[in-house]
């Protein structure tokens, strides 16, 4: 496994590799967990060379967000990636990715108006910009993204289509802990009690799925039932409970054959997101 720390070296290496090998890429912000590793295994399965980037992208954090305290542990990440037979870790410095005078942004209009985009101003511009840059640097054939960050996945898919990027975005299902909590690097912020409360997020999605399977198609009713489950314990601050079109992310009143249920809430100071697809069998 090779650790590449500069944009120039990564770009030169990818240029050579791409001529004969299929490059699979997993962009991450590090502090890896089983969710990330599942993406790496998927990349391993479909490509010859697996590149994982570890970069806590300052552009996607708002001024009041957790950029400085975001968990980091490169040595641990490197060991985990070695075990998963990663070929290359791309681990650049922020000053190399955004040098002095940097001023270009990528905005995927429309999809960012919903869900997390409403409160996290500029977040998805930061995400689209850095992913675009990483694609130009790593030059992958495949890029694997988790459905855990559903809106991010949709925005990247659209960016790739709109800009005719020559690669395939490969979605991967959400990996959960035993009680159903979606794995996230931010889960480390949770105290044991908060972790217990956070299980209600999964329970509320299960409730919604159950109602949907029983034939409920009124989105307001399902949203209200989700809210009730999330309110079973004190201390969950709901940011949104959304039932939306799975492609456009537009809020729905009447659910057709398929919809996205997405939730964002704060448990203590920690912001958590999760989602599930409500779909007719
Ligand atoms: P992050 O390090 O949080 O930026 O995430 C890097 C990639 O891992 C993104 O494509 C995420 O959607 C994906 N990811 C994060 N958590 C999970 C999870 N629990 N299951 C599957 N993929 C995940």
Give a quick precis of the structure:
The protein is α/β, with parallel strands linked by helices and 281 residues long. It has helices at 7-18, 34-46, 74-83, 94-97, 115-119, 123-138, 150-162, 192-213, 219-230; strands at residues 2-4, 23-28, 49-54, 88-90, 142-146, 168-172, 236-244, 258-267, 270-279. It has a six-stranded parallel β-sheet, sandwiched between helices. The protein has a three-stranded antiparallel β-sheet with strand order 7-8-9, with helices on one face.
Write up what this structure looks like:
The chain has 281 residues and is of the alpha/beta class. The chain has two domains: 2-172, HUPs (Rossmann fold), CATH 3.40.50.620; 185-275, 2-Layer Sandwich (Pantoate--beta-alanine Ligase, Chain: A,domain 2), CATH 3.30.1300. The chain has nine helices and nine strands. The protein has helices spanning 7-18, 34-46, 74-83, 94-97, 115-119, 123-138, 150-162, 192-213, 219-230; strands spanning 2-4, 23-28, 49-54, 88-90, 142-146, 168-172, 236-244, 258-267, 270-279. A six-stranded parallel β-sheet has the order 1-4-3-2-5-6, sandwiched between helices. Helix 7 (150-162) links the parallel strand 5 and strand 6. Helix 8 (192-213) packs antiparallel against helix 9. It is globular and about 55 Å long. The model has no long low-confidence stretch (mean pLDDT 98). Bound molecules: adenosine monophosphate (AMP).
């Amino acid at each position: 496994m090779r650790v590449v720390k500069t944009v120039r070296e990564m770009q030169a290496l990818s240029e050579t590799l791409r001529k004969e090998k299929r490059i699979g890429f997993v962009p991450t912000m590090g502090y890896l967990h089983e969710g990330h590793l599942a993406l790496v295994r998927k990349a391993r399965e479909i490509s010859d060379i697996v590149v994982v980037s570890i970069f806590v992208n300052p552009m996607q954090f708002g001024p009041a967000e957790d950029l400085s305290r975001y968990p980091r542990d490169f040595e641990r990440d490197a060991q985990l990636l070695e075990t998963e037979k990663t070929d290359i870790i791309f681990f650049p410095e922020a000053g190399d990715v955004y040098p002095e005078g940097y001023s270009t942004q990528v905005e995927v209009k429309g999809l960012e108006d919903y869900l997390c985009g409403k409160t996290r101003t500029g977040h998805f511009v930061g995400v689209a910009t850095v992913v675009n840059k990483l694609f130009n640097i790593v030059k992958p054939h495949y890029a694997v993204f988790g459905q855990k960050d559903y809106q991010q996945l949709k925005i990247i898919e659209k960016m790739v289509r709109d800009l005719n990027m020559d690669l395939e975005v490969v979605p991967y299902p959400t990996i959960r802990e035993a009680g159903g909590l979606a794995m996230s690097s931010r889960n480390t912020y949770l105290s044991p009690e908060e972790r217990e409360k956070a299980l209600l997020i999964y329970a509320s999605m299960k409730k919604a799925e159950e109602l949907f399977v029983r034939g409920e198609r009124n989105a307001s009713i399902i949203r209200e039932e989700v809210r009730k489950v999330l309110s079973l314990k004190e201390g969950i601050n709901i940011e949104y409970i959304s039932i939306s079109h799975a492609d456009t992310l537009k809020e729905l009143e009447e659910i057709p054959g398929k919809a996205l249920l997405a939730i964002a809430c704060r448990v203590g100071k920690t912001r958590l997101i999760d989602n599930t697809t409500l779909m007719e069998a």
